[in-house]
Amino acid sequence: MAYGNLFHVAFFCSAMIVSLTSIVYTKLQKRTDLAQNHIFLFMNYVVLINSATCLCYEIFESYTRYFPQLKYLMFVSQFLYFLVHTALAPGLFYYVMTVNGAFCEKTVFLKKMCLAPFVLSVVLVVTNPITHFVYYFDKNLMFYRNWAELVLYIIALTYFVVAFCNLMLSWNALTRRRRWSLVYFFIITLIGVIIQLIIIDIKTELFGEALALVGVMLSVENEDDRLDSAIGVYNRNALMMDANHLLIKRKIFHVVCLKILNMDIMGRITKLSNTDEIVRVISDYLKTIVPRYRIYHAATDTMLLLLEDDNKKVTEIETMGIARRIHDRFEDSWKIRGVPIKLSSVILTAEVPKNVHTLGNLFYMVDSPMPKEMENRIISGDDLKFLIRRGAVESAVSEGLSHNNYEVYYQPTHCVDGLKLHGAEALIRLHDAVLGDLYPDEFIPIAEQTGYINDIDDFVLKEVCRFIQSGEAKRLGMDCVNVNLSVLQCMQKDFVKHILDIVNSFGIDKSWINFEITESVSASDYELLSNVVKELKENGFLFSMDDYGTGYSNMHSLFELDFDIVKIDKSILWDAEKSELGQIILENCVHMIKQMKRKILVEGVETKEHVEKLKALGVDYLQGYFFSRPITKRELLAYCEVRNDE
Ligand code: C2E
Ligand code: CA
Ligand code: CA
């Protein structure tokens, strides 16, 4: 074989080896589900076949001198080369468009029309043996290009340029890794083509393409970081990427979000250290309903199906159909390691962006704990609004701290004797620019779930300390200021030290602060809570039991924890007005607490009759709208001054 041919052979062999490697690895990784995977493999096959045809051509050409009949095989090789190579540029074009999600159900026709230039190339090549428009061989078997080869180049270049422009337009929707590996793909392909154009004997075109495809395999096609390897479906990271991509591309898609409510209990029953096995069994079932690449393991107890199709719009009816099938399946038990188990679930379905407008909201859907009353239901459409509100409140809660949106309000408390001022309860308010004024009943539970409660309670405590330190509270004739503590916070490590550090830094007398807690903890945590209360009391703080009579309070702890004041919940007072039984309950609560020698405060005092009734019962303190709603510090000062003057 001539030296020139050998040189070419080296390039073609290398291209063959590289593209074959890409194919083998892709097959081994079983990444063959998505349209993009198919196109990727297709491009590799094109490069592989092309390298093979070129290799054959070189071999046949070298030996035609000895075996003239080989020239026919040479023609066939060259013909096949041209035929297959015309598919590469369209392949690249469709690959980039698919990765970028450029097509949708409205552009199915356009998608097909994009094949027209390719069809023209094929016609030119197929008819070439008769027309010789693309190329021909002379009598000495010399190869000549003809005008139509230029047409083939222009067509390929057009695909190339359009794909590149699309890449640029989709820049923001792609992850950094995808963007740059696609750019690299374009550059290396282009360099290969240019080198070969300039120096025809350096056959870098196919080799460059094969190498560029390896780069794509490693970065775009590789899904290691997108897969939940234990379960074989996509992970949360993949959901984030894919949903973000679709949102940026303004695509409409549907989601079915499946939450398992009793996952932790089930984990314990089946003695599995983690819940992967349960998720795996459910995923296996989901794979029978939708393709694997539509399933995401979005959070420990949450699976999400992302329903989207380039070719036709997924309808609400189809989505509901899927949700219903899953719902019905949950009526039966599941076999987890041979043990039949009944799982309870909630299914949320939504159209994005109609019901769920942003990625943040989608993840609220994934992460929100579900109220027990939603168990075994399918929730969709307008019913999802609570999630969006929750999402907005959560942002307000977190931003509120850095934007100074929290404000401590005070609601005065009064002694029954002469109704003189006793103190005030600090109650937090959140002023949000978008949502307006928010009340703690709504945002405190969210703050507790998200952990912001610690910072909020610290903020309140510091504000109250500042108020006491300023001497104003004393001047106004107050005895103490009540501060609500979240029981969750009390359970934290070094809580007592934390509180002491804050209060000591203001150098105030600790008996000015009266902590209120609602005892809502389980028996196992009770000891911890009682130690915290004891320690804080030893340091001089006062304690009130809040919301007495709401079902959480227990007689034993009432006595054990040595509260200074018991706050009877407003519902007890209001019920006493409504029925005789209510009246009996109120009277007996008061008697019992009095016998235990605790002071009593009643909340929710709204009318003169309430005041009279409670006076007659002999409670100690009153709090409620009859005196004042919770008000700002400045309003409190004005309120107290007016009363002191009376
Ligand atoms: P709570 O500690 O039981 O506070 C009393 C609630 O009853 C306050 O609601 C108050 O505005 C309301 N209230 C008082 N008197 C009357 C009345 O006469 N009529 C009526 N209808 N309502 C009355 P608010 O301020 O919305 O607070 C709700 C709950 O949020 C509080 O219940 C408390 O559990 C929690 N909370 C408030 N501020 C804080 C805080 O700084 N930290 C923590 N951890 N929780 C807080
Ligand atoms: Ca309270
Ligand atoms: Ca209360």
Kindly describe this structure:
By secondary structure, the chain is of the alpha/beta class. It has 3 domains: 219 residues, Rhopdopsin 7-helix transmembrane proteins (Up-down Bundle), CATH 1.20.1070; 153 residues, Reverse transcriptase/Diguanylate cyclase domain (Alpha-Beta Plaits); 253 residues, TIM Barrel (Alpha-Beta Barrel), CATH 3.20.20. It has 26 helices and 20 strands. It has an 8-stranded mixed barrel with strand order 12-13-15-16-17-18-19-20, surrounded by 6 helices. A 5-stranded mixed β-sheet has the order 6-7-5-10-11, sandwiched between helices. Strands 1-2 form a two-stranded antiparallel sheet. β6 and β7 form a beta hairpin. α6 runs antiparallel to α7, α15 packs across α16 and α23 crosses α24. The longest helix has 29 residues. The radius of gyration is 37 Å and the shape is elongated. The mean pLDDT is 89. One calcium ion binds next to loops.
Spell out the blueprint of helices and strands.
Elements: H1 3-28, H2 35-63, H3 70-85, H4 88-99, H5 108-113, H6 116-131, E1 135-137, E2 143-145, H7 147-169, H8 176-198, H9 204-221, E3 227-228, E4 233-234, H10 236-248, E5 253-260, H11 263-269, H12 276-286, E6 295-299, E7 302-307, H13 316-329, E8 334-336, E9 339-341, E10 345-352, H14 359-367, E11 378-380, H15 385-402, E12 406-415, E13 421-432, E14 436-438, H16 440-450, H17 453-469, H18 472-475, E15 480-484, H19 487-490, H20 495-506, E16 513-517, H21 523-538, E17 542-548, H22 555-560, E18 565-568, H23 570-578, H24 580-595, E19 599-602, H25 608-617, E20 621-623, H26 633-645
Parallel strand pairs: 10-11, 13-15, 15-16, 16-17, 17-18, 18-19, 19-20
Antiparallel strand pairs: 1-2, 3-4, 5-7, 5-10, 6-7, 8-9, 12-13, 12-20, 13-14
The protein binds ligand C2E and calcium ion (CA) (2 copies).
Residues 411, 426-428, 439-441, 444, 457, 460, 484, 486, 516, 546-547, 570, 603-606, 623-625, 630 line the site of ligand C2E.
